[in-house]
Structures are given as structure tokens and as C-alpha cells.
Amino acid sequence: MPLLIVIPVRNEERRLGPGLARLAESLRAQGCPDAMVVVSDNGSTDWTRAVAIEAAARIPYRVVYHRATDRADKGVAICSAWESAPEGYDVLAYCDTDMATDPEALVRGYRLISDGKADLVAGSRWHRDSLVVGRSWKRSLISATLSCFWRILPGARMTDPGCGLKLVRRSTFAHLKMPAEARGFSFGAEAFVRLARTGAKLVEIPVKWTDDDAGRIRLGKAAGDYARAWWRLVKG
């Protein structure tokens, strides 16, 4: 059951190379030989594409560059790469470029799906066995607020919608029906709740997460995306 990992990127020329190297080393160390990495670009104007192509020549896994869209939209980058995955890749995943979430969790999640114990796997920094290092008070406050609201959604329990590590069985993803506006930072979380409501088994796993000062996202925009996604889910 091969694994396809999407890394959504936008202007990541500095962090992409080290991130890919760390991911490849983690996969190799855990005995995951059959994986493909898709660098899915959403609007880069720097040398991200060149870095991805150069990395593909030296990393012992298949690395493919995919231009998903010319506008900034993480959700489109993930969804487009998953939808265009080559035949045979039965587990689809994504993780962030900075590898703030230790990629070791990818293989644990992959094994839960390949062993038939889950259809959806989401990393959670709020899991009791997780280790969170260096998170700022502002980021902690936003994460805690999102967690409180997303835990109470009917039909699925998700404690950490913003964690940048998620995996899905391909046959489960094929049943996804999303509103046209459901993209952005919240795409993965909203998709997982909608799929869990159809009967797919969602499992949250502990992660090691380390804040990356160089990887500051636009917290206000991200929080807005998650708030709108939450409201769509409340309405059904």
C-alpha cells in the first residue's frame, strides 16, 4: 500500500531542501521504502521549483513538483495533488515544509491505515502523549480556542484542526464532497470532519511539534479560515 505525501509550498526556497532531506531520512529510518513526495506549489514566485527539482536528484524517494495554482491557497495545493495522485498510491498524506511536526508520525499514521485500524489519521498537539516545544502564547491561545470549538462539532471529534499532519485512505477520500469555497488553511480539517460523518474512522495520534520561527503563518488569516470552516460544518 504505497504512500503519497504532499508538501504544500509557497515561496519556500530556503526551507524546502532541508525539509525534504529530513522527511527522507525519517522515512528511511522507519523502513518505509515505497513513498512518493509531491511538492505542490500554490503561487511561488521564488526558486521553490528549482529547489524541488534539485532535491529530486539526490533524495532516495521519488520527488515530483506540481504547480497546483498561481494563487495562495494551501487547500487547493493539497486537494489538487491528492486528486491527481498516480494509480496505486492508496494512502494520501500531507505535512508542512518546515517539518514542525516530526515526520516520524507520518509512518505511524500510515501503518494505522495500512493495517485497517483507521481511514483518517490526524496529528494532534493536544493528545496527552504529544510533546510541544516553543509554541508562542499567541499561537497557543488560537490553537486552544480552535480546539474547544472543533471538539464539539457533531459527528466527529477533532482536537487539533490546525496540526499540519494528516493522512487518508484513498478510497475514503474519493467520497469527499466539499463546498466550492472550502479551501485555504482549513481544507484538511474540514475534509476530515465531513468524511468522518460518512462513517470513516478518524484516529488522532500524538506528535512531537517544535515551533519554527522562520515559518510564521498569517495567524489571523488562518484563524479566519478555520472559523468559516467550523460554521459551514455547524450548518451541515
Brief rundown of the structure:
The protein has helices at 16-29, 48-56, 74-83, 104-114, 137-151, 170-173, 187-197, 219-235; strands at 3-9, 35-42, 62-69, 91-95, 120-124, 131-133, 165-169, 202-206, 208-210.
Could you explain how this protein is built, in words?
The chain is α/β, with parallel strands linked by helices and 236 residues long. The protein is 39% helix and 21% strand. It has eight helices and nine strands. Helix 2 (48-56) links the parallel strand 2 (35-42) and strand 3 (62-69). Helix 1 runs parallel beside helix 2 (48-56), helix 5 runs parallel beside helix 8 and helix 7 packs parallel to helix 8 (219-235). It is globular and about 45 Å long. The mean pLDDT is 94.
List keywords for this structure.
236 residues, alpha/beta, Spore Coat Polysaccharide Biosynthesis Protein SpsA, Chain A, two-stranded parallel ribbon
CATH topology: Spore Coat Polysaccharide Biosynthesis Protein SpsA, Chain A
Total DSSP E strands: 9
Estimated radius of gyration: 16 Å
The helical percent reads: 25-40%
Taking the sheet with the most strands, its summary is:
7 strands, mixed
Question: In CATH's first tier, which class applies?
Answer: Alpha Beta
* Number of helical elements: 8
Strand-pairing-aware structural class: alpha/beta
Fourth CATH level, the homologous superfamily: Spore Coat Polysaccharide Biosynthesis Protein SpsA, Chain A
Instruction: Note the gap between the termini.
Output: 33 Å
How many distinct domains?
A: 1
The strand line-up of the biggest sheet is 3-2-1-4-7-5-8
Instruction: Give the SSE order as H and E letters.
Output: EHEHEHEHEEHEHHEEH
Overall pLDDT: 94
Q: What is the overall silhouette?
A: globular
